[in-house]
Every structure is written in C-alpha cells, then in structure tokens.
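Example S7 (structure tokens).
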C-alpha cells in the first residue's frame, strides 16, 4: 500500500448543514459505526456548541469503542475579545470529550473585518489561543482555515499568517478550506503546494462543490502534498455539497495507490453509501461514480456486446472492487448479447444461438409492446426469464384482495386492504390500512407473507412511479407502475402494466417480493457451497 491519506468524514456535521438533512442521535451512531468499519480516520460528528442533540450524541459516544476512527467535535475559535476559558463554544467542545477537535477560524481578511467584525490582529490571537488551549488539554487539534483559497488570493500574507498563528498554538493539522466552492484545480494545486513547502505542519483539504470541481480540487491538493481529505461520504453538505468522499477514496486508492480506507473494506464502499443514504433518508444520486446504481449500467447494444466479451472495453474498473455490480439494461437499443447476459445468470449453458435466446427476445419485444419497460426493471425481467426457463416456483397463491377507499369529504382519504393468500396449503388473511390503496395493499400483503417469510420485514418501498402510457384513451389508458425496493443493502426495481393502476401496482409488488425471496435462497445456497 502507498502513502497514507487520512480520510476525514463530515457527513454528520457539514452534511447536516445540507438542505433537507437532519440526523437523530441514533442515526449518527449508525453512521459512525459504518465509517469506523471502513477504516475512516476521523469522523467529525457534530458541533456541540450548536445544539443539545449534538451534545447528547457525544455523551452517548463516551461508551462506544471505535476500532479505527477518531471521533472529532467541531467548533469555532473563541469569540473576539473574550477569554478562551470563558467562551461558551470552547466549553461545549470540552464537554464532548473527544480525542480530536476541529477548530474553524477566519483566514480571509475581509471576513475578519466585515463578518466577525474584529481586527486582523485579534483574529490571529483567537486562532492561536484556542488551539493552544485545546493542546494544553491533550487534544489532537485540526485547524480548518475557512475561505483559505479566497483569502490567499486576496491577501496571501494574511492568509498564511492565520496558518502560522495555528502553528504557534501547536496545531496538528492545517486544513485549507475551499469554503465557497468556486475555485479551479490549478489554483488549488499551486496554493496548496506553496503551503506544503512553506509550513512543516501536515496539510489537509476541505472542498465544496459549487463549481462542480470538488473532486478534482481535492485530488489536486493531494497531488500537491495534502495528506488529509475532508468531505462527506456521499457528497451532501451546505449548498451544492462537499466533496463526495466515496469518489475521492476510490480515485485515490484504486487509481493513485494511496491508502485511504482498509484495503479489505473497499468492497463495502457501495453498501456504506446506501446505508448513509438510507439513514439520511434521501434518494442517492444513482449516477454517482463508483457507487451509483448506474455507475456500471450498460444500455447500448454495442456496449453490452463489448463488456460481455471483455469488461474493460467499457468499464474503467471492475465494479466488484467497490462492491458495485454491472447492470445490463433491456431496451429497444439492445441486441441478443443483452438478453444473453441475463439468461446466462440463470442457465449458463444457453448461448447466443440457442432457441431460448430468440424466444426470450421475442417475449421482451412483446412485453415492451404491451407497455412494459425493462430498462429500469431488470428484476421483473429476471422473473420473466425464470418463468420461461422453468426456473420459477410461486411463493404463494393469491386467493383474493379487496380494497375499500373512504373519502370523508374534508380532504381526508383513507384506504384499507384485505388480502387472502395460501402458502403450501395454509391460508392467511390480513387487513391493513394505508395512506392510499397501494400503500394499504402493500402493507396487507407483507403482513400476510410475514408469517411465512419473516425476512420481508427488512424490505420497504423506496420509490413508486406511475406513468400513463396512452393518454389518448383518457381514464381507460394503460399505466406502467415502477416500484423500487430495498432491504437496506440491495436495491431492485420491478414493473407492472395494466389499465387498472391497482392491478399494475399489485403485479410490481408481487415481483418485488418474489425477487427478494429468490435472492435470499440464492444467497443461502452460495453460503452452503
Ligand atoms: C464554513 C462553515 O461551515 S463554519 C460552520 C457553520 N456551521 C453553522 O453555522 C452551524 C452551527 N451554527 C449554530 O448552531 C449557530 O450559528 C451558533 C449556535 C454556533 C451561533 O449562534 P448565534 O450565537 O445565535 O450566532 P449566529 O449564528 O446568528 O451568528 C454567527 C456568530 O458567530 C460569529 N462567528 C462566525 N465565524 C466565527 C469564527 N470563525 N470565530 C468566531 N466567531 C465566529 C459571527 O461573528 C456571529 O457572531 P455575532 O452574532 O456576534 O455577529
Ligand atoms: C470549515 C468548513 O466547513 C468550511 O470552511 O467550509
């Protein structure tokens, strides 16, 4: 392994400054544990001077033993014209009892005079005093030089003086922050290089993504000598976000030979991203490099033909290295090779010239003509193949379902669903209420099946999309329902088509459940072998 790069994850601090994000104490603990498992060096998990929740989190964490990660509390320098010992923020940071503190301070002269409204000299003292205070308490101290690059461009002597003030206070790391996110990689490279050459202290980089340059900027800082990379795991943060650490880690470790996380944990890069998104309750950007669901999804027939012959023809890395997987998308632009990759997963002896391949292509086209679209619903297509090849056995038999919708005329609608199924000769009937008919149906079906297949409790719907296919026939139009499901680890999509939206949803729901149960059986068989 090459040079060690300390990964500093701020999902729980800068990430919590993103629009739409709010973590509970439990959420924070889950994310810290996941990042610790990966071997992330520092997790900046909150700002104890900001709110009581963060303080409570740090109190809970006193009992937690981390294997690889140093828990870090974040806060500002002391306020102007106060004693460091009497500063409320400094006191809160002490109460957090973390081995590491990250202290941010101003390094752009204009911010000193116009935002915190003090003198340039007092700001230098604020930085030095605060850092010296935490060093005297035995902490590892990181100085986040806020707006360092803008500050350097406006007044290089003063920006460097703020770093020297931190150094005089005994700081362990100088982190150069690209706070407004508008800088270019060449600027980042030359300024970081200058700092690395002038100061003997270890240097880190903290980039925001306002110009879409955060990954390039972070990599250039590392090329210039930075050995700590700050960011958030899947890139959410203030405004357009922070640098996406999952991209940075993969680029540095797989392409540049640096050691960012534990070598054996690289295969968990993707599942950790899913976990962070789940806990943060956001839909992940599926086009994200390395970890997105589309990162290794091939659609053009020629691309699919290429990867099926030699994967490196259209893939920059083997997706398994980051725990992701190749996906082959079915569509009108696919050929036999496309369908074959799917078929061979179920029956490897079938080839391009086998009659089953042609029959399945014909079936694909027939279903597409009926309104199905498999590009985003490979799981349903896998079930079509299984049914066609005789590799399918239903997990239950539907006796009936009934749905009752109530409209109370005051903007309040409720729905209840009754489902009766039979599994291996045993009937089960359940009733559930939901926010709408599909929600009620989903709940009732899961409840009924839960008796026989408890693992379905892990599954929930992540997305539900309806598309009207033939608008000319108005309310008699066909609809296509796409359901995206997850068990917290994997993501799969199923599709149903009908003139009845409930029926289309039912078909997609049943496929989702059957697909999960098939995958569980396959997993067990693999473990047994
Ligand atoms: C670049 C960054 O991301 S830095 C981190 C930014 N993160 C956050 O702001 C989230 C957490 N913040 C908070 O919870 C609140 O802002 C608090 C509790 C910290 C402060 O709240 P308040 O005291 O009500 O102040 P408010 O938020 O309105 O204004 C910020 C204050 O901090 C001061 N301040 C800003 N940066 C610094 C700094 N580097 N050093 C010292 N003081 C600073 C400002 O001058 C302002 O003080 P003033 O009210 O005396 O003018
Ligand atoms: C410290 C920090 O979050 C920033 O400068 O962007």
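Recovered sequence:
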């Amino acid at each position: 392994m090459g040079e060690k790069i300390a990964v500093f994850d701020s999902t729980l601090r800068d990430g919590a400054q993103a629009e739409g994000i709010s973590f509970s104490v439990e959420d924070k603990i889950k994310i810290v544990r996941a990042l610790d498992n990966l071997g992330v060096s520092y997790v900046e998990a909150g700002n104890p001077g900001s709110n009581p929740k963060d303080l409570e989190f740090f109190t809970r964490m006193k009992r937690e033993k981390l294997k690889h990660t140093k828990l870090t509390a974040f806060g500002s320098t002391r306020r102007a014209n106060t004693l460091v010992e009497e500063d409320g923020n400094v006191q809160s940071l002490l109460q957090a009892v973390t081995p590491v503190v990250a202290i941010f301070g101003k390094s752009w002269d204009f911010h000193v005079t116009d935002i915190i409204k003090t003198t340039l000299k007092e700001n230098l003292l604020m930085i030095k005093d605060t850092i010296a205070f935490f060093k005297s308490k035995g902490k590892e101290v990181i100085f986040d030089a806020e707006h360092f690059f803008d500050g350097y461009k406006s007044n290089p002597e003063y920006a460097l003086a703020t770093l020297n003030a931190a150094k005089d206070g005994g700081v362990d790391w100088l982190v150069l922050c690209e706070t407004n996110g508008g800088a270019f990689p060449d600027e980042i490279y030359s300024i970081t290089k200058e700092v690395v050459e002038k100061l003997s202290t270890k240097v880190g980089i903290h980039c925001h993504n306002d110009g879409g340059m955060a990954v390039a900027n972070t990599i250039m800082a590392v090329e210039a000598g930075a050995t700590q990379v700050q960011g958030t795991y899947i890139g959410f943060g203030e405004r357009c976000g922070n640098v996406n650490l999952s991209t940075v880690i993969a680029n540095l470790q797989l392409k540049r030979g640096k050691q960012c996380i534990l070598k054996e944990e690289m295969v968990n890069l993707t599942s950790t991203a899913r976990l962070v998104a789940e806990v943060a309750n956001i839909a992940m950007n599926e086009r994200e490099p390395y970890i997105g669901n589309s990162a290794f999804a091939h659609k053009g027939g020629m691309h699919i033909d290429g990867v099926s012959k030699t994967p490196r023809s259209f893939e920059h890395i083997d997706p398994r290295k980051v725990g992701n997987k190749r996906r082959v998308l079915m569509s009108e632009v696919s050929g036999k090779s496309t369908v074959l990759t799917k078929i061979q997963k179920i029956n490897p002896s079938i080839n391009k010239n086998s009659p089953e391949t042609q029959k399945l292509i014909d079936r694909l086209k027939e279903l597409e003509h009926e309104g199905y679209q498999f590009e985003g619903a490979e799981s349903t297509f896998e079930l079509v193949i299984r049914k066609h090849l005789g590799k399918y056995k239903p997990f239950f038999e539907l006796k009936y379902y009934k749905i009752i919708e109530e409209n109370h005329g005051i903007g309040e609608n409720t729905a209840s669903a009754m489902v009766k199924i039979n599994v291996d000769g045993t009937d089960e009937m359940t009733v559930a209420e939901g926010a709408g008919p599909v929600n009620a149906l989903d709940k009732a079906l899961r409840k009924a099946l839960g008796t026989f297949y408890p693992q379905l409790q892990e599954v929930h719907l992540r997305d539900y999309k309806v598309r009207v296919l033939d608008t000319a026939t108005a309310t008699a139009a066909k609809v296509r329902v796409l359901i995206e499901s997850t068990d917290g680890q994997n993501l799969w999509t199923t599709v149903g088509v009908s003139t009845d939206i409930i029926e289309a949803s039912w078909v997609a729901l049943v496929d989702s459940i059957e697909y999960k149960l098939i995958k569980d059986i396959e997993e067990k068989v693999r473990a047994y072998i």
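Notes on this example. The first strand starts at residue 6 and ends at 9.
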